[in-house]
Amino acid sequence: MSMGRQKKRLGKEHLKRIIDSCRSVEEKGINPFLVDVNNILAIIHEYFPEWKNPEELCLDAEAVHQIASAIKLQSEWVKHRSTSLYTDPFLIEEKLRKLSKEEISTIFFKSWHPIVELEQISPHSLAEAIKYWQNLIPLDERWQKTEGLQIETGTTTREELVKQQIIAKKEFSKELETFWQELKQKAMGKDKIEYWDFIGAETYEETVKHAYLASFLVTYGYATLEVDRLEEIVYIRPYKTPIPTVGKKQAISLPIPISFEDWKNWKGGVKD
Amino acid sequence: MKKKTYYATQLKRATHLLFFKRHRKPGVKGWELKKRLGADYPKILALLNSYLEKLDLQVKTVFEEGKPSKNPTKAQLDRARFYITLHGSLTPKETKMMGWRIDDIAGLAMTISTIIAKKGKASREEVERLLRDKLPGWRVNVNIDRYIRAGYIDQDEKGQLYLDWRTRAEIDEKTLIDLLMAK
Whose CA is closest to B107, among B161, B157, B57, B62? Predict the structure, then answer.
């Protein structure tokens, strides 16, 4: 019994590793022949009889899908190498590094045939423009129409502004800092926690506010999000010190819906 | 209408269609030429090409699915895009008049050759690293964005750079790589 369970666990780990390695070959553009297709197929074949539930079968299907993508990449690789355009990328890089800007430009001029294009206004668009101009109301008249209501000026208090939610009770940066400390405390010992466990609160309003603050934690480099695509779970991992992310690499947006239904499900799950 | 007059009229029409930018991108699709010039538009374009050659210009055909190995079919021609491009090459002085600095040209050449060498796809980080070798750091990002805006390259959400429509229309990829390797 326990032997079977252990084999299953091992099999799942194998499949996840296969999926990851195939994905990295595709994303990083490395030699797809580094993927040993025969060996991987043998592994997938070996563990296949163990899979019973849909989740396991999905994992198996994903592994097969990834290996198919790797085979496709291998075929494209061979095709490209057999074309006259194929040149070793390292050789090209070396040439480019060695040559001066002027030499590179001179080479480029010989292979560059720019498009000739002219832009001009046609009699038809000119007629349209005149018509538009003639129908245009003078600025004075237009501004008169958009004049706003005149209200007597007065004074307000800080409390009133807080009540109207124009300014926050606490300074935003301080609030963010407190929220970050809270995240670090919750994730202590585990390194990361489930996103919903962190933002989930007693009320829906509070949960939305937490999600809003969490988005700033990630944007400002206080924390990062990790997605387990198989389990469809989002984790949030706090950084020990903020890491400035702006301009360093391409930012990726990760939309996470915080619907009332989701919150109710999460709350029900927590209570259970 | 006499045959000679017919072709003279069609030639003028084709010149207007191809020279003046009518859409966001320059060039005219084959089916559009067929609609305006008739089914024998490839013949008219060949005629126009022979006129333009004397002026160091040419009619360039860019096929949607890459250059066909045999004679293109009518369907392939209808889907293709036609441009007027320079037949010969530019001198550095002429490029300056077009608003391109030698740095910009060298950067563009490096970007395009790297993408070609990497099977038509290279990560932006990788290209940036290479460009930093020749260009001042602050110009690298500005230049890559400029090449994207001009339609020479495109970038996907994963930060991978690809060759875009303008490269396919203007650059003789094989000549570029061959000349680079011959250096």
Answer: B161
Instruction: State pLDDT tens for residues A45-75.
Output: 988 888 888 888 999 999 999 999 989 988 8
Q: Are B86 and B59 in contact (CB under 8 A)?
A: no
By three-state DSSP, how is residue B61 classified? Answer: strand
The Cα of A195 is separated from the nearest Cα of chain B by a number of Å equal to 23
Q: How far off is chain B from A38, nearest CA to CA, in Å?
A: 25
What number of CA atoms fall less than 13 Å from residue A261's CA on the CB side?
Answer: 1
Could you give the 3-state DSSP secondary structure of residue B180? helix
Contacts of A58 by beta carbon, 8 Å cutoff, 6+ apart: A230
The per-residue pLDDT for range B115-170, each reduced to its tens digit, is 998 888 899 999 999 999 888 888 899 999 999 999 999 998 888 999 999 999 99
Cβ neighbours, 10 Å, residue A17: 13
Q: Please answer yes or no on whether B90 and A118 come within 8 Å at the CB atom.
A: no
Burial grade of B102 (CB within 10 A; 0-12, 13-18, 19 or more): middle
Nearest by CB to residue A109, choosing from B20, B90, B116, is B90
Q: Which residues of B touch A92 (CB under 8 A)?
A: 113-114, 116-117, 177, 180-181
Sheet with B28-29, strands from edge to edge, namely B28-29, B81-86, B57-62
Average pLDDT across chain B, whole number: 89
Nearest CA to A254 out of A209, A222, A214 is that of A214
pTM equals: 0.54
Q: Complex ipTM above 0.90? A: no
Neighbours of A165 (CB within 10 A): 8
- Rounded CA-CA distance A38/A58 in Å is 21
Per-residue pLDDT tens digits for B56-90: 999 999 998 777 777 888 899 999 999 999 999 88
